[in-house]
Amino acid sequence: MGTGASKRTQYGSHGGEEPEEEEEYLDQGGGGQLYVSLKMENNYKLKKGELLPHVFGSVPLVGSWDSSKALSMERESTSMWELSFVVPPNHETLDFKFLLKSKYNTNALCVIEEGPNRQLIGGALQGDARLALFRLSSDEVLEYRVFIKADRVSPFDLAASWRAYQENLRPSAVRGIPDVSLGSVPETGGENSSSATLELDLEHYVIPAPSASGHHVYAANMTETPRSLTLSGVFTNSDGSTGSSYTFKDSGIPVDRPATKKEMEVVIPDSSKMYSSSGMVESKSVGTLSPFQKQDGHRGLFVDRGVGSPRLVKSSSSSAFSTEPRKDTETKNSMPEAAGAVAAAAIADQMLGPKEDVHLAIVLVGLPARGKTFTAAKLTRYLRWLGHDTKHFNVGKYRRLKHGANQTADFFRADNPEGMEARNEVAALAFDDMVSWMHEGGQVGIFDATNSTKKRRNMLMKMAEGNCKIIFLETICNDERIIERNIRLKIQQSPDYAEEPDFEAGCKDFKDRLTYYEKVYEPVEEGSYIKMIDMVSGHGGQIQVNNISGYLPGRIVFFLVNTHLTPRPILLTRHGESMDNVRGRIGGDHALSDAGELYAKKLGNFVEKRLKLERAASIWTSTLERAILTAAPISGFPKIQWRALDEIYSGVCDGMTYDEIKKNMPEEYEARKKDKLRYRYPRGESYLDVIQRLEPVIIELERQRAPVVVISHQAVLRALYAYFADRPLKEIPHIEMPLHTIIEIQMGVTGVQEKRYKLMD
């Protein structure tokens, strides 16, 4: 009764019949039916023993006129209840009423709404009864808002809806618990919950995050450091800290040709070491792929399924690969490109595509304040998390380091030859750095600049010939409110205006710069491109693609379709302590300990207070018992179980302690100790396997516009947290993920911020 049928679409699901035939079928009454949705809303907080909405009325749709057989409405949100059903063609006149009954005492008297019966005839509600009034006493009346909707649906839509219901809402074969529960309220009668009381001040539970990820960081500052720089002394930052200053080497490189490797010699420390604290570690491996030796002129490939695969290295011939031995220092830092399907796609792209398709350059295009740098940072984080060696090159950072950060708007005029030459020079240097990095094994470069004219883009395409494939990513925004917001954020965060004390003067200068760019701006119409039009608002928009093919470009498009900038929190927490945690056993599917049950109560109280105004929030758990039980006390929000959120599967080691593994399976113990990232339990999973199955979860988290609470397990949450915190793959197995602690990730226009709450010691 609680299932909903989808609306009839333009074309039915009946083998390609034309829509006109379907309309005729429904008009003749040959199976077209009414789908009715009844909803009630109030702002009264339910307490133990209070009354819950029910419906009763004409047989057989809503039970009967016997109030003891009234159908209960299901909770859709904190203040909304819903009941839906299908009306057969021979019973399209429906009489019914709402009533309130006690949840805990079914024999108690019920309260029937005042007024005449409600009538629904042929899908149309008679009268205009938008309120339901329940008189509890002579001076106490409860008022509910009523929403009644009826849609005519085809039997084909009903069949599809029923299949979806059976697949998602039917009880699982393991514990009889539905995979999706909507608005379930836990039975807490007689339970002493005083020990789970949470103080009203949530800040009481805040603990320091392990890194500085909770602070606002200008995204362009986290991009790749220019290679073609020379250390030359010390400067003082705006925050008072000191650091090394840089000057570009006078290489005399013309802006219309790539630099040679000698010209682009690196003379500063390895950027991967410089950025290790912020998670931007250079990955030099191209994957867990390895070729067999050539036999009879043919070449075979295999995908490594465990630890210690040889590295795939480009030989001197552009068309051949070899498994050359690597030095220990290189092997130590090598990163797998991906696992499973990702690795298979990488093989196909590398072996079947031309040389330049092995390397991909995503070249940003767009006017200032359109979200280019933020989009580039999100895309970089996503691709790195999947295991693709990706770096973000910001031309503005190059410009500031060579020409200073205090350039006025006149520097960006198209009729300023000195400014144009300087900007083209730093763009060429940044692109040369990206190509040089690709020759060393890098896979995806994100080239972040306005690139607003065809002349500039033609220069970049000429430099890319034989080196990499270019895809232009153009961001277009027509919402003046969003543009104004982005401008103000730019003035607050960009080093370009760090020395400008007058905020409004900075805004005026930036708007002048924007005007100069608008005068010469030319939308992308050449080559392979992706256009994001009004996507940053999170409300509609569109994406246009041209000449896009291949696995990785397809993943990029799919990610961009689902991402947006709507601010919302994502709460990550492990399940409460389980009996297996107490015993020190891995895996398993056991219930919570006493401490775990206490945490579940505290978590329910926390979520109710933290998300009390978020009616569209949802709770996601794994399908394992300890996660489901941890979510049980949370009421008022839909709960969805994801098998992708299940703990890493330990295969034959499931249920063992680490001491038992060390004693009985010493080779496995040592292999795991050597490389926890790529180690796969016998008949089980590796961390790379977990990352691969979590990709749909990441996409759905990016797509959500409301808060989400994720209750899962240590390995899974390590992988999810690494995505948001932009932590290198090799660090994932070692990220601290304590019990009884909530990690709140705040997604928004300024990036990702983090806050932690520890509810129990």
TrEMBL record:
Source superkingdom: Eukaryota
Domain called CBM20: residue spans: 28-136
Name of the protein this chain belongs to: CBM20 domain-containing protein
Region: Disordered, residue numbers: 1-28, 300-335
One Gene Ontology term of the molecular function aspect: ATP binding
Pfam families: 6PF2K (PF01591), CBM_20 (PF00686), His_Phos_1 (PF00300)
Catalytic center residues: H575 (tele-phosphohistidine intermediate), E647 (proton donor/acceptor)
Organism: Rubus argutus (Southern blackberry)
Keywords on record: ATP-binding, Nucleotide-binding
Polar residues bias spans: 1-11
A GO term from the CC aspect: cytosol
Residues involved in substrate binding: R574, H575, G576, E577, S578, M579, D580, N581, R626
UniProt-listed GO biological process terms: fructose 2,6-bisphosphate metabolic process; fructose metabolic process
Keyword DNA repair: no
Matches recorded under SUPFAM superfamilies: P-loop containing nucleoside triphosphate hydrolases, Phosphoglycerate mutase-like, Starch-binding domain-like
InterPro entries associated with the record: 6Pfruct_kin, 6Phosfructo_kin, Carb-bd-like_fold, CBM20, His_Pase_superF_clade-1, His_PPase_superfam, Ig-like_fold, P-loop_NTPase
